[in-house]
Amino acid sequence: MEKKGKVYLIGAGPGDPELITVKGKRLLSQAEVVVYDYLANKKLLAHAPKDAIFIYAGKKGGSTHTHSQDEINQMLVDHARAGRIVVRLKGGDPFIFGRGGEELEELVRYGISFEAVPGVTSASAAATYAGVPITHRRFTSSVAFVTGHEEPGKAESRIAWDKLATGVGTIVFYMGIKNLPSISANLIRHGRDPQTPVAVVRWASTPEQRSVVGTLANITEVVREAQITPPALVVVGEVVSLRDTINWYEQRPLFGKRILVTRSREQASELVQSLEDLGAACLEGATIALEDPEDWGPLDQALARIADYHWLLFTSPNAVAFFFRRLAALGGDSRRLQGPRIAAVGTATAASLLSHGIRADLLPEKFTAEGLAEALLSQGVQGRKILLPRALKARDVLPQSLQQGGAEVDIAPVYRNVRPAMAADIRQALEEKKIDLITFTSSSTVTNFIDLLGLGTEELASLLAGVKIAAIGPITAATAAKAGLTVDIQPATHTIPGLVEAIAAYFS
Ligand code: SAH
Q1: Catalytic: 75?
Q2: Phi and psi dihedrals of 330, rounded to 5?
Q3: Which of 44, 122, 132 to mutate to test ligand 1, by most ligand atoms within 8 A of the CB atom?
């Protein structure tokens, strides 16, 4: 039987990529074609298969449309007829000022099967994220969603302004920024109190969110002064006054802060997630990519006589990951590690070990190579055989101090740092002064970052003027200082959670 195409009309939610529905996300992961809008967060596209066909349908209010509505309808029909699973991804809810109905009517006309999945509409998100309960028993029991696209003055208006002005408690206008002067004038003219509070929320539920509050009488002025441009929602009604009490999103410690996270590609996510949870907007700058060593010989030989070792030391989660990947490739698992005691430099490394079923026997008080060396030396290492799987290039303080203490140390490279090209968007963000803070989580992130920029001391200083610098620990901070950077933030605990806490404290 011929494969049958189908169209899923899916609400992407208002902006925060986590506000898509579970169903929407699942269907997106099965898409063969994704037709998406300006307002649908691009991060959602990562849920679709990499080899799907991605089509940007454009449609940004005010500017030229990338595709006409007819063209979009035609695309949906054509791809579905070719037997493909098509996801039509729209910002917010597809049926709320989203032309979802029109697109489905077209599919019906062509006999194409479809399903629709609702989404969190931006009015709901704007209210929630601006601290305005859209209804509240003390204030109102009715709410209206209204398009502000229509010129309120026009004779054949389809909005009953006289009824709307006083007939509904909370009124939310979509696409209302351009017509804000006539919207507020019209509501006042038809009897709404000029002192009614109004909130305008731009890019709701994203790190770019901005909101202002005024009254019907002065909101046009407030919006003009704050230079609020679309996309934004206008929320009119007494409930807006609750914002003084409830505003939570914009009060998170890192709200509005733009942070460049320099990390290895494999590792950025934990730090980024924690910072974003506190309200920051993160840009991920990979300064390191990790690759297999060219020669697995030293590790393979060490594994062959693993029982001879007294200690096996891990100084990073990366070392753990690459070590176990190799072990698995050789057909082994953690049971092969019977014999040596196992030490981790810090809690993250210990957690990685635990994920392989191994509880570290030793965790130093200070989570640095020096701290680990000290902890081992205090136990006595004379005559002990120690295996250290680690990066090809790394500081030698750990093996050296152990050797001085009389140990026999074998170093087995399990990965190497290679330098990726600096993403153009990062350099641009720095040039446009759109970065408040840069985080460094190892010495090599510092040196690679500086090398990638490829600037002289003065140019570097001017590019980074005003940008705060956070370093995870003393070694990283020293490397940054040596490169001419002023370190503003350095946590007492040299871990990712410690770093996040120090950053939050700094900005609070
Ligand atoms: N279907 C969408 C609305 C599309 S109409 C929904 O359900 O949300 C486009 C208008 O939606 C914009 O002009 C703006 O008024 C509003 N809008 C969409 N996303 C928004 C956001 N994140 N923040 C503020 N307004 C938004």
Answers
A1: no
A2: -85, 5
A3: 122
